[in-house]
Write a structure and sequence with these properties.
Layout (H helix, E strand, L loop, with lengths): L1 E5 L2 E4 L4 E8 L6 E8 L6 E6 L6 E3 L7 E7 L2 E6 L8 E9 L12 E2 L3 E6 L1
Length: 122
């Protein structure tokens, strides 16, 4: 079972990026999905999460209005980020947890992707 995160890169302040997470090895239809990020010296924090149906989403206050999390199918989620700021610089991880509910704690997630670096230059 694997989650493959992609789409990170270097952008200027105000730019946009689209992160994708593709699951393989099983069907994630019974899993909620989330994107976390971790900046150097900081704890991993939840950026956005989506329920297994795709009908419910959560966004951290720090990114609300600037990101959209969508679920293409059971195994693929996308995080569209715009108006990026230097403080968005971090390694971004996708995760999957077996629950119908949106989960906010890292402990609630069962599978993790390898992370993709997002760097926003000022």
């Amino acid at each position: 079972v694997q989650l493959q995160a992609s789409g990170g890169g270097l952008v200027q302040t105000g730019g946009s990026l689209r992160l994708s997470c593709a699951g393989s090895g099983r069907t994630f239809s019974s899993y909620s999905m989330g994107w976390f990020r971790q900046a150097p010296g900081k704890e991993r924090e939840l950026v956005a999460a989506i329920s297994w149906s795709g009908g419910n989403t959560f966004y951290a206050d720090s990114v609300k209005g600037r990101v959209i999390l969508s679920r293409d199918n059971a195994n693929t989620v996308n995080l569209q980020m715009s108006s990026l700021k230097p403080e968005d610089t971090a390694v971004y991880y996708c995760a999957a947890g077996r629950s119908s509910l949106i989960m906010r704690s890292t402990c609630s997630y069962d599978y993790w992707g390898q992370g993709t670096q997002v760097t926003v230059s000022s």
